[in-house]
Amino acid sequence: MRSWARELGFSQIGVAGVDLADAEAGLLAWLEQGFHGQMDYMQRHGLMRARPAELVPGTVSVLTARMDYLPPDTSAQWQAQEWARQIDAQQAVVSVYARGRDYHKVLRNRLQKLAMQIQEEIGPLGHRVFTDSAPVLEAELAKRSGLGWRGKHTLVLSRDAGSMFFLGEIFLDIALPETAATSAHCGQCSACIQACPTQAIVAPGQVDARLCISYLTIEYAGVIDTALRPLIGNHLYGCDDCQLACPWNKFAKPAKLVDFQARASWQKNDLLEFLGWSEAQFLRYTEGSPIRRIGFERWQRNLAVVCGNALRQETLVYAHREVICRQLHAWLADAQTSAVVREHIEWALQQAPEPVCQAGVEEE
Ligand code: SF4
Ligand code: SF4
Asked: Which reaction does it catalyse (predicted)?
């Protein structure tokens, strides 16, 4: 099974049992504190998330798998390069995992193929595959089956590969021998906690999603608190900061699959390019990408926040300020622009030195 998994592009597999009872208290406490924000589906699935055999009756083992996702041509200095993007006012940064093809389909297809190979070998097999799926406690299953330990940022970390990998699971109705958990290796380090721009890691191993830039820019559908907007910087979609700060990510591995090669637009992360996209262009350029899931309204809202933060930067060249202001005013003049987006645009324009944004109005 390990060699089949490797041929399919997985870096490691493991097997977890279905008794996650000792994870239930932590899950309930997290929900009770409201740390899941608007992710109501987390609450809806309740304790079923910690009970694989209730979610898929008949499940007795869970095969866990991880797949590295750094774009195949990533350089050894990738962490430094990503930090450099964040002080470049001309960029609007998309999280590294989202720069290639939508991993949901890639992983599901390959997990399905792995299940078929097992079935060919042993006969009929009850199974169901998951990846990044709300009802599954996948990081917990990965930890228990030895794919890594939970870092203080809550993500799964491997000594061989840092945390830059996707997780997937196959729920099986056959009993496989469980693989052993690994020990944790965060030690006294707290780099991720210190690096988090919004202090969303409220305690080691606890993230308040309501403060997390990944949640705010991807999952959250409303008006972003004005106190959080400056902290979002130029994060357009997702946030990698806690992973960029993690010393174990110097061992992160490039993807074996070309699917995770970064598309041209996401290599550049050019704010002005993104700002020029119409809704039709957004849909065309994000086809097959996970970014499409947020839709054009959230895309515009996030761009408005990035623009506001760019307009405050002294390093932003005057010509770019003008283009940004002109486009923001054009969106304001467009009857299709939603009230939520308008609110963020008005905030963004207030961040600019006044004469530039007045020029934008006059040119209209
Ligand atoms: S993803 Fe970003 S905002 Fe969220 S916990 Fe990590 S560093 Fe903080
Ligand atoms: S940055 Fe340090 S504390 Fe955070 S996950 Fe990595 S090793 Fe653990």
From this structure: epoxyqueuosine(34) in tRNA + AH2 = queuosine(34) in tRNA + A + H2O
> Which of 4-8, 120-124, 279-283, 336-340 is least confident?
120-124
Same domain, yes or no: 93 and 234: yes
Three-state secondary-structure class, residue 267: helix
State whether 158 and 291 are in the same domain: no
Distance CA 169, CA 146 (A): 13
Q: What is the pLDDT of residues 128-181, one digit of tens each?
A: 999 988 778 899 999 999 999 999 999 999 999 999 999 999 999 999 999 999
Examine the domain organization and report whether 208 and 328 are in the same domain: no
Task: Report the C-alpha gap between 330 and 337 in whole angstroms.
Answer: 10
Distance 97 CA to ligand 2 centre (A): 19
Same domain, 135 and 247: yes
Ligand 2 site, residue 190, Cβ cutoff 6 A: yes
Q: Are residues 360 and 228 in the same domain?
A: no
Q: Among the atoms of ligand 1, which is closest to the Cα of residue 207?
A: 5
pLDDT score, position 24: 77
Number of structural domains, the chain? 2
Whole-structure pTM value: 0.93
Helix axis angle, 318-333 relative to 339-350, nearest 10°?
150
Asked if residue 239 and residue 352 are part of one domain, the reply reads no
213 and 244 in a common domain: yes
- Residue 102, both tokens: 């939508």
Binding site for cob(II)alamin, by residue number, is 49, 132, 156, 167, 214, 239-240
Q: What residues make up the domain containing 310?
A: 270-364
Q: Specify burial of residue 228 (Cβ count, 10 A radius: 0-12, 13-18, 19+).
A: middle
Residues 138 and 174: their CA atoms lie apart, in Å, by: 19
> Tokens 């097999």 appear where?
125
Binding site, annotated residues for [4Fe-4S] cluster = 186, 189, 192, 196, 212, 239, 242, 246
Tell me the catalytic residues. Answer: 132
Cβ–ligand 2 contact at 344 (below 6 Å): no
